[in-house]
Amino acid sequence: MGVVPLKEIVDRAMAERYGVAAINIVNDLTLESVLAAAVERRSPVIVQTSVKTVRSIRADVLIAMWKAMTAGIEVPVSLHLDHCPDRAVITECLAKGWNSVLFDASLLPVEENLRQTIEVVAEARAHGAHVEGEIEAIKGVEDDVGSDEDSRRQSLETSVRFVETSGVDVFAPSIGNAHGVYSATPHLDGQRVSDIVAATGVPIALHGGTGLTDEQFTDLISRGCAKVNVSTALKVTYMTSNLAFLRQAEENDKWDPPSLFKHVAADVTAMAAGYIDRFGSAGRAW
Ligand code: 13P
User: Fold this and answer.
1) 276 pLDDT exceeds 90?
2) Whether the CB of 146 sits within 6 Å of ligand 1
3) pTM greater than the 0.90 cutoff
4) Domains contained in the chain, number
5) DSSP state of 139
6) Model confidence pLDDT, tens digit, residues 213-263
7) Does the N-terminal or the C-terminal CB of the chain have fewer CB atoms within 10 Å?
8) Which Enzyme Commission numbers does its entry carry (predicted)?
């Protein structure tokens, strides 16, 4: 199927009530490994880049990698810019070919957030791209963006007005979820997801996927969380897999980089395939 607009992926997932893994990659190896998992499981997948990753690798290099690695791919895939408060980075990524962006103006007053989100939606549309919006910061710092403070939740009325007036394609409410590693299983407000979906029909992005239970995923996906974000799990898998291999390499005094890459890629692919299976999107490629 190949590269498709974000809306095509999330609208189908929402209608059929499965979740699509939206996985933050950090380099070429993790990008290739996540795509390999989607192909292996015959699943749609959303690949995400944080602003930190865009800055560390550069947008032109990332998009060249994306185009090369998705050429001829047989499952639906989409490239998304995660939490971005910086309009210049949004403009650059949209111009270069990202399929969607999360404009994160959650630290601004809702009215100013709405005013700017309307502009970002118009900018995205000019590129055939889509927009995720949020009006409450998701707790936890993710690649230097965010805060460890709980943010104030807005009323249902404010959320619905934001979604309807801004024209965002996906909405990310705060429901007790957080980025990073949970110290205990969080209490999530699934009713809030159901209420927003009932009022707007817009697919919901569930942030902070790492560490949630299968029951939480199943419940929230059935309520309309069509996009499920996972970042920390990839970072942990990537780093610990490298560490395990390098410890062994040191012990054996055997230093072969391609063997390291193969080992880490297999672990990252297995991690991504595990989430795809848990979210119910395996076999859903069209
Ligand atoms: P985790 O880092 O908790 O997996 O959350 C990912 C996320 O929500 C990215 O926006």
Assistant:
1) yes
2) no
3) yes
4) 1
5) B
6) 999 999 999 999 999 999 999 999 999 999 999 999 999 999 999 999 999
7) C
8) 4.1.2.13
